[in-house]
Design goal:
Length: 382
Amino acid sequence: MLRFLTAGESHGQCLTSILEGVPAGLKIDIEKINKNMIRRQMGYGRGGRMKIETDKVDILSGIRFGETIGSPITMQVKNNDWQNWQRKMSITGQPFGDKVTAARPGHADWVGINKYNRSDIRDILERASARETAARVAVGSVCQQFLEDLGIKIVAHVVNIGGVRIDRKKIDYKNMGQNISELNCMEADAEQKMREKIREASQAGDTLGGTFEVIVSGVPMGMGTHIQWDKRLDGKLAQALMSIQAIKAVEIGDGVKYADYPGSKMHDEMFYDEHKKVYRKSNHAGGLEGGMTNGENIIVRAVMKPIPTLMKPLHSIDIASRQEVLASKERSDICAVPAASVVGAAMTAFTIADAVLEQFAGNNMIDVKNAIKSYNNRLDER
Ligand SMILES: Cc1cc2nc3c(=O)[nH]c(=O)nc-3n(C[C@H](O)[C@H](O)[C@H](O)COP(=O)(O)O)c2cc1C
């Protein structure tokens, strides 16, 4: 079983993640992790914070001489901005600086302050902030390297920002993931229109959401299972993606489209080739049937709501004065869908890696690979 925890506040000293369950003997390329960290920070429409931080992972445990050793992997991402926040975020001493008291609609501010009985909204927003996703990307990047070693590849791309959608006919699916553009969009014309849409939102003091898609190729058939609700891989993927801050809908394969068409148009018919291998001509199911991978590419999409901190703030309440006020303005993104797509790839990588290890449990990469080989041999003989 693979599991991870993250810790750290947005303006604290650092973000930390501990990933447990990665088999020994996996070569880890730290530069590959750091490339993903930078990708999470990119995107036209990001706030000033991303200009301050240049995320880089320090690995503190679990790896020796470039290889995993089977023990928990601890990773740390330092916050460069900490030097400006040391007094406000001090672990000891007396409170320093003004309290944040005007709640932002759409954020964790109002509920969190009540639930945790705090008087400074900063006590909530510091952890609710999606800065936490830097720690998730570090975890997902290790998982991605584990999957790559087994021939499983994950790419994520932006398909919609603020209602501007890609034209799928213009996408070169074969070369996906090769050249990452600023908005991580695979269709240049749409990306240009998305940039324009973000610029307009920025000028209006507004924010935008959108949709990203994650495609996983090379996954063996039979990961996940139909036998129990909590072991279905479709459910696990939905939870993993929905757990990302601001993600409000997840669809697998044709997802919401299923509601509009009859079964004759929506299921992926099966055929035999000349070697009696089964093949399909479509992948409406997004690679999952009965909560299990069916050997086709896994396709999942996630919808992100518009960023809740607006430079033209929304009407809200002040918990100290009990007056109606305008919501507070933290330094903030206008659109973070490209960044969310990188986090989505990370969460997908973790979920698939966990499913692979559940099926092919092993404490080292040789045992895992042998288990996969023997499973594939059995399938070939059927
Ligand atoms: C990559 C990423 C960046 C985000 N950046 C911001 C931001 O700059 N300002 C903001 O208010 N919310 C931002 N959010 C969204 C909030 O973190 C999120 O809306 C908030 O934690 C409340 O959670 P909920 O939307 O899931 O209910 C971002 C989310 C992601 C995934």
